[in-house]
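User: structure tokens for this one?
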Amino acid sequence: MTAGPNGLASGILADAVGVPAASVFHDLNELSHAGLAASQREGRSIIHSAAYPA
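Assistant:
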């Protein structure tokens, strides 16, 4: 991810690739369950980022 460890909201990612935000959110949720992405709540947004190894 070019956003790096800070990540981006799914809506911003959706706008960048031209798909519905719900689709991006679902895909990122699946990646999170697989351990490939991380997410954290910031206010009303959920910020997604790649799960970088420690």
